[in-house]
Amino acid sequence: DEIPAVIGIFSAFGLVFSVSLFAWICCQRKSSKSSKTPPYKFVHVLKGVDIYPENLNSKKKFGADDKNEEKNKSAMPKNSLHLDLEKRDLNGNFPKATPKFQSSPDLENLSPKLFAERKKDSVSPDSLKSTTSLSSEDKQDKLGTLFFSLEYNFEKKAFVVSIKEARGLPAMDEQSMTSDPYIKMTILPEKKHKVKTRVLRKTLDPAFDETFTFYGIPYSQVQDLILHFMILSFDRFSRDDVIGEVLIPLTGIELSEGRLLMDREIIKRNVRKSSGRGELLISLCYQSTTNTLTVVVLKARHLPKSDVSGLSDPYVKVNLYHAKKRISKKKTHVKKCTPNAVFNELFVFDIPCESLDDISIEFLVLDSDRGSRNEVIGQLTLGSSVEGTGGEHWKEICEYPRRQIAK
């Protein structure tokens, strides 16, 4: 009789202990629910943005400046959490704020005196207008100076050109206020010898120090040659910017006494070179119902000589622009060794708007060259803001939709 009584007492104590333990665990779970951290998947979606309130003060927040952080700290309580989820992209990243001004190495090396002078000039708006107008005029008039040397080696019967440096080049990149200059040199009039220097990054006073030797040129023919230096700025995303050019006729220059050091001012590229570049026959049709533009590149004729053999390998690149931003591009096949190329290729472009006022289309006729970069033979633009035949052609396209108009 004593054994069942002892077992009943122990089982009662065990039941009471288990019930009290279960109640204690439930209370602990309820109290810890308020301070529980979010799951790992939510943190992973935010890609490293710290969402815990206790760490917001110590770690750097994304997508905000220091001044905005101080304002947010004063406006929000300590334990509050604020994330602009609407400003994030589909991947959960915050967009990077583009700085209005980028510092360049030239600005970092400015002396305090020059910085003070610039501050004085920027006091009044009138002075700002005057300084900007002067700087624009100086940029247009002065494109820098090119330094080079000429020499003739009688033993090897070779003509030697050394490109030393260029000083005072204009800034072709508006963001960094620098250029990536390089020089192309051609010996005219035959254009048999074409060379170019390496690209020097982010400088307005490039020091090339490169020497080019041309063999097989008799000294008697040197007087009939013309040196053509083309100064360009490299652009990775579009066509290289032309800074200017230098033309040196060698008539009257004596190289028999030795090396001759020379310097010349860089001038604007001669606009007359773009005249007489041939003709391009194109046909366009605008479909107002489907908002599409059909472009047919038919043929080109009377293209200039751009190769040693006297013939070019032309092809046409078609670029569609909306509000000065390129939205689509196409190109034809290359036609070998002909100044009169027949393409007969059709392209269809989707127009993003019903109106054609902000749309323009550009035709670039290029010479394909495997050895070097393709050279532009000529350019043609059609649009509402274009003067001449390009504007007239575009006006007819807008006035007569669903009609193929060729010019």
From TrEMBL:
It is found in: Cytoplasmic vesicle membrane; Endomembrane system. GO terms for molecular function: calcium ion binding; calcium-dependent phospholipid binding; clathrin binding; phosphatidylserine binding; SNARE binding. SUPFAM superfamilies: C2 domain (Calcium/lipid-binding domain, CaLB). Residues 142-263, 276-395 form the C2 domain. GO terms for biological process: calcium ion-regulated exocytosis of neurotransmitter; negative regulation of secretion by cell; vesicle fusion. Residues 60-82 are annotated as: Disordered. GO terms for cellular component: axon; cytoplasmic vesicle membrane; exocytic vesicle; plasma membrane; presynapse. It is a single-pass membrane protein. This is SYT4 protein. It comes from Eubucco bourcierii.
